[in-house]
Amino acid sequence: MALIEKIKQLANANHKTVVSNRRHIHQHPELSFNEFETQKFVETELKKIGITDIQQLANTGVVAIIKSTNNPDKKTIALRGDMDALPITEENKTEYVSQNIGVMHACGHDVHTSSLLGVAEILFALRNEFEGTIKLIFQPGEEKLPGGASLMIKEGVLKNPEVRSVFGQHVMPFLPVGKVGFRGGLYMASTDELYVKVKGKGGHGAMPHLNIDPVLIAANIITSLQQIVSRKANPTIPSVLSFGKVIANGATNVIPDEVLMEGTFRTLDETWRSIAHTEMKKIAEMIAESMGGKCEFEIRKGYPFLKNDIELTARAKKYAEEYLGIENVVDLDIWMAAEDFSYFTQELPACFYRLGTRNEARGIISSVHTPTFDIDEQALEIGAGLMAWIAVSELTA
Q1: Residue 205 contacts by C-beta under 8 Å, 6 or more apart in sequence?
Q2: Do 321 and 180 form a contact (C-beta atoms < 8 A)?
Q3: How far apart are the first and last CA of the chain?
Q4: Sheet containing 350-358: which strands, arranged edge to edge?
């Protein structure tokens, strides 16, 4: 029997286990860098499979190694799945709803972790039928700076043995279950957090001439900063500047002393990213000063942009077409969300692809980071089987 058919059979046979693992992880979500119980669960499941080469990294991360019985030193590749959840209260009514109130796997990391466990079971069973070594990276803290990927890299996750390339998959609720998506080159944005404090002089709303209104200053800053994207950025470079939190704790007739704002800046060019940082700070401070106030503008630099290796991604797409059929593999557009898998893409050839999870007939249509996000669990069979096939195919490339 061809190896691809063996992988498909194992993915199908193991599907119930992967679903069970996903539901367990979904019921017991843990926030970034607090994935202690998830870490224990992953280690336990790996040992059940028979994998003993297991290491802890980045405090709550897990790294496991599967070596082929035939020429394990030929090449090493890595497969990554993240483990952390989000501070969201789940509104689904499923039997596997989150039992940790206020914490939810709303970004599909339960899918990524359980799928990678499924990959581990497939590859361990077939270790006599390929050459090389697979490093499984169960990563903490994708949702929170500085990002678990950066910490695991610093602690040597890509060394001993040295990794030649790395693959990651992520749920995509805009893709129907059964389909996957790829994009070579620039794919996801860098992300920076903006924390702004505008200081004025508060007082009675009926006597604005005696005050320095930080609300008005803040409004001018928000409006003017949008011109950085519309008039300072090269139109060919995708850029997004958004403020999602503004706190002016006054009243209908009370002008406050200060206004706090929080936002995000995202782009796909490091040179422009640096220029934009300088421009934002300068404009905000000048506007505040010109209106009699002051502005403290803090930029917390986050993840870099994600760039998929073009050749590696082309090969992975071909492997997916072999496994699923060409009609089930789509090309992706640039997406302005951010991902700390980008740190891997800065270090070595990497491919980050998308796993379809949508099922409109069953009402499974919610986006990630929402309290009603869920998946069609048939995606788990594809997630485990396809990644296993990509891994063994790339080892022979």
Answers
A1: 250, 251, 252, 253, 254, 255
A2: no
A3: 21
A4: 54-57, 61-67, 133-139, 76-82, 165-176, 350-358, 180-182, 329-331
HSE-CB of 379 using CA atoms within 13 angstroms: 27
Angle, helices 378-395 vs 109-125, to 10°: value is 50
How far apart, in whole angstroms, are the C-alpha atoms of residue 181 and residue 313?
11
DSSP class of residue 304 equals P
Token digits of residue 379: 């995606």
Q: What is the pTM of this model?
A: 0.94
Torsion of CA 58, 60, 65, 66, to 10 degrees: -150
Q: Would you please indicate which residues are annotated as catalytic (active-site) residues?
A: 84, 142
Of 84, 64, 70, 192, which Cα lies nearest the Cα of 134?
64
Model pLDDT for residues 83-133, shown as the tens digit of each residue: 999 999 999 999 999 999 999 999 999 999 999 999 999 999 999 999 999
Domains of the chain: 3-186+305-395 (3.40.630.10), 192-301 (3.30.70.360)
**Rg, C-alpha atoms of the chain:** 24
Q: Hey, what are 235's tokens?
A: 């139109």
CA distances from 93 to 18, 27, 97, 371, 397 (A): 21, 12, 6, 11, 45
- Kindly report, residue by residue over 240-290, the tens digit of the pLDDT: 999 999 999 999 999 999 999 999 999 999 999 999 999 999 999 999 999
The one-character DSSP state at 69 is S
